[in-house]
Amino acid sequence: MAKIRSFSYVLCHLVLVLVNVYIFRKMYYYDNEKLSWSQTAAQEAEKIASISCSGHGRAYIDGYVNVDGNPICECYSCYGGIDCSLFSSNCSVNVESGDPLFLEPFWMQNAASSAVVVAGWHRMSYVFPNNQFFISKELEKNIRKIHAIAKNAITHGKYIIFGTGSTQLLHAAVHALSMDNNYSTVVANKIPYYSLYKLQTEYFQTRHYEFGGDSSVLKNNSDFAGNVIEFVTSPNNPDGKLESPVLNGPNVKHIYDHAYYWSHYTAIPAPADEDLMIFSMSKLTGHAGSRFGWAIVKDVNVYTRMMEFISLAEMGTSKEVQLRALTLLKAVAQGDGKQLFNFAQHVLTYRWEKLSHIFSLTKRFNLQTIPTQYCTFFERTRKPSPAYAWVKCKRKEDKNCQEVFRVAKIIVRSSRKFYAGDRYVRFSLLTGQHDFDMLIHRLKELVSQEYEASAQAMSSF
Amino acid sequence: MAKIRSFSYVLCHLVLVLVNVYIFRKMYYYDNEKLSWSQTAAQEAEKIASISCSGHGRAYIDGYVNVDGNPICECYSCYGGIDCSLFSSNCSVNVESGDPLFLEPFWMQNAASSAVVVAGWHRMSYVFPNNQFFISKELEKNIRKIHAIAKNAITHGKYIIFGTGSTQLLHAAVHALSMDNNYSTVVANKIPYYSLYKLQTEYFQTRHYEFGGDSSVLKNNSDFAGNVIEFVTSPNNPDGKLESPVLNGPNVKHIYDHAYYWSHYTAIPAPADEDLMIFSMSKLTGHAGSRFGWAIVKDVNVYTRMMEFISLAEMGTSKEVQLRALTLLKAVAQGDGKQLFNFAQHVLTYRWEKLSHIFSLTKRFNLQTIPTQYCTFFERTRKPSPAYAWVKCKRKEDKNCQEVFRVAKIIVRSSRKFYAGDRYVRFSLLTGQHDFDMLIHRLKELVSQEYEASAQAMSSF
Q: What GO MF terms are annotated (chains A, B) (predicted)?
């Protein structure tokens, strides 16, 4: 009996010792993972990210705080209340801006690879070392890599310049190209065109250039012999069409705004290989708020002048933004590098099909047509997936198309903002899923009104 | 005997169980601290931050990587080799730029409160919600708080605008102030002045203004009746003097460049209360690379125009930068809010004393004089602690002062860059400790040459 008891003690002991060894190993493993200075910030970030806001909003570490100092929920449109649980069924859906929030879920799915931890002493200097000045060479390398993966631009033998969004680079490019000549006329490729080209050129009112509208004005003026800078937006904002220059000749220079030239939004027939091309993080990864863009430039003089512009305008681009862009681009390039592109194209194709179906049921409106085209990135013919819907109000009385949609509780951008009268509107298809669902809901209501009206008209016969 | 054995088993058991309970508690505690998506990024950041580079350099998460994909050391000037252990005794020390690296150790000491963790989906939108557009209201609130702590500016009843460095805001301010009038002449307060005012105004060549030199030109021209925008840089860059406007009258508007109006660099006689004041994070926290500044503006029209400028130039300021600025300013405001100010003033006062002592030993050079003055922040009369030394070469033959220092292996900024001829140079006192030590070493060598030369001259008699 004593032997059995003794044996059971020993056994018990042994088990306990083994359990302890296991626990110690685990603790040691934990210890390896344990953090020092970044622990609190990381915990705080995760804590705030985990606030659910009823699935209808989001809390941010730099958001408004309540009396306890905790960030409060920022609700999606049509939702309210302290936890965004209150739905306002009567509200308007806003699809006016080009906010690329459709990519938010991708980054939530890739949270670990896209997180950035910035030390308090990170890159305090104005410049990167070794004569790199304002440009992170690692980021430049990764931008070239992404273009090689995306098959949308040839960067070999070209310079890369960073800017605070493509917005700044458009301005820098006009400035750099106009410096050779006494005077240049800046034109947009075709109507409809992105309003910034006009607004920016006119606002800064330099002595070197002025805005001349769309290029047809000069095309039809055979007497014009001045210097021209033509913006070629391809795919075009708003209508998504692939465009080429209208004007050519020794006095014409082109700025290719390729913000949307990613397989998210268009077939890529071939990599772009122009002398001055501008891209933005906003439409590649969806980080519009970061304000990061880059220009790919062939000519060394244009490159030098654009760098000078960036330097005198603001002494280079923020180091925090460059670090985040680097992290995000590395995450994009992971594995076969196709994950983001597949995700984006999948979401936008689905949305376009959904929208096309609704517009096929109405005679009141017309949706732009986009051809199915062979895409060298996907190595197949692909369906359309544009960033925006460009919709015409066909009824004679619907002169102000934006107003028609406003009444239907859909806030859109009028074609007036694209210098194309009032007959068209632009819907963004880049919104968060919630806003897209609301858009579809409101559109169905609008289209069903047409049926109800015709049913009423029929019944009155 | 059996009883004793049995008792010892039970005791042993009990101890083991207690140890286990302790360990389990500790594990549970660890579990609470355990991170999910931010863990890898935080570990990576800490790992890279811990690379020592022999104490003569630093590794960054966005730095060049070696063949194994690990970031390599970026060495301080005069150091080289893979771990920055090789000292080049013959090299020049560079104190030319205004890089505020003297504040780096402060952020290393405050690593936990200054760390920032950015989620992949953080602030992807162009705008903050609730009509805040491009401005983080939390950051704005904290900027007002810092000025209240620093007692250097009155923000009450004024608007705040963010920019990509004060650099962008200087440009935006000139633009906004010139829009009222047909034409404005932009002048700098006094010679010597910061070159950017001239370079920027001339580079952008708008139809609304041109650069007119320093204000004495207009002061002495009694016939001049045009509109004037005067930059008042106080404390002045390069010489650190507190300045007030030279020109006054109904046609004169002022832009107060208060980048250095912090108790780091000057006594604060009273909080500044001007209509248009510009500050920068670069000279407050030392984060020049972030490119973040703000303007404090009284007039709503000037505010609106400056906001329009920022919007058309680049659609607002990066969200990453705003988040980092918020974190850093919160860290500054911790406790009694005086920690950073004490640190900065302490370092710079020490440096100024060290430099003053060396220059007191030479007749060849002259250091600017800065009065001891009562400071409302420190609530006492304080010694000088300017950002820069402004040094005159007194010998007739030392016409090119920069060259004298270049030969002595000290790279400085010539007074030519401040439109003040070649007789003066600017040394930065804002460098990292290593560069400051090197500067003192080289200066001692230079001054000792003077003694050797006079000794030789004496011995030749």
A: carbon-sulfur lyase activity; transaminase activity
Answer whether residue A238 shows pLDDT above 90.
yes
pLDDT, residue B194, reads 97
**Contact status of A43 with chain B (Cβ, < 8 Å):** yes
Output the pLDDT for position B33. Answer: 64
A450, A364 Cβ separation under 8 angstroms: yes
CA distance A452 to chain B (A): 37
Q: How far is A382 from chain B (nearest CA, A)?
A: 28
User: Do B313 and A318 lie within an 8 Å CB cutoff?
Assistant: no
Whether B433 contacts chain A with CB within 8 A: no
CB-CB neighbors (< 8 A) of B171 in chain A: 313
Asked, for residue A55, whether it belongs to a domain, the answer is no
Residues pairing with A297 in the sheet: A159, A276
Q: What distance in Å separates residue B387's CA from the closest CA in chain A?
A: 15
Q: Are residues B263 and B150 in the same domain?
A: yes
Nearest neighbour of A205 by CB, restricted to B37, B206, B319: B206
B371 in reach of chain A (CB within 8 A): no
Chain B: residue nearest A21 by CA? B20
Residue with tokens 């600025």: B325
Residues 300-319 of B with CB under 8 A from A: 308-309, 312-319
pLDDT in the model for residue A224: 83
What is the per-residue pLDDT for A452? 80
CA angle A417, A418, A424 (to 5 degrees): 90
Mean pLDDT of B79-107: 94
Residues of B in contact with A46 (CB under 8 A): 35-38
pLDDT per position as a tens digit, A180-211: 777 899 999 999 999 999 999 999 888 899 99
The pLDDT, as a whole number, for residue B30 is 46
User: At a CB cut-off of 8 Å and minimum separation 6, what does A292 contact?
Assistant: A162, A163, A164, A165, A280, A281, A282, A317, A321, A322, A324, A325, B318
Contacts of A108 in chain B (CB under 8 A): 120-121
Q: What pLDDT sits at residue A131?
A: 64
Q: Check whether residue A215 and residue A301 sit in a common domain.
A: yes
Q: Does residue A345 share a domain with residue A329?
A: no
In this structure, is residue B22 part of a structural domain? no
For residue B74, give the H/E element and its range: strand B74-75
Structure tokens at A195: 């309003």
Residues A316 and A354 in one domain: no
Answer yes or no: is B18 within a domain: no
Full residue range of the structural domain in which residue A18 is found: 9-39
Query: At which residue do the structure tokens 């769309």 appear?
Result: A214
User: Among A333, A354, A374, where does a domain finish?
Assistant: A333
Integer Cα distance of B230 and B170 in angstroms? 11
Q: Do A318 and B315 touch (CB under 8 A)?
A: no
pLDDT, tens only, A40-58: 999 999 999 999 999 999 9
Indicate the residue of B107, B130, B165 with minimum beta-carbon distance to A315.
B165
Flag whether residue B184 sits within 8 Å of chain A, measured between CB atoms: no
Query: Which residues in chain B have their CB less than 8 angstroms from residue A206's CB?
Result: 204-207
Which secondary-structure segment (H or E) carries B391?
Answer: strand B388-393
- A253 and A267 in a single domain? The answer is yes
Nearest to A36 among B20, B46, B123 (CB): B46
Q: Tell me the pLDDT tens digit for each residue of B3-41.
A: 666 666 666 666 666 666 555 555 544 445 689 999 999
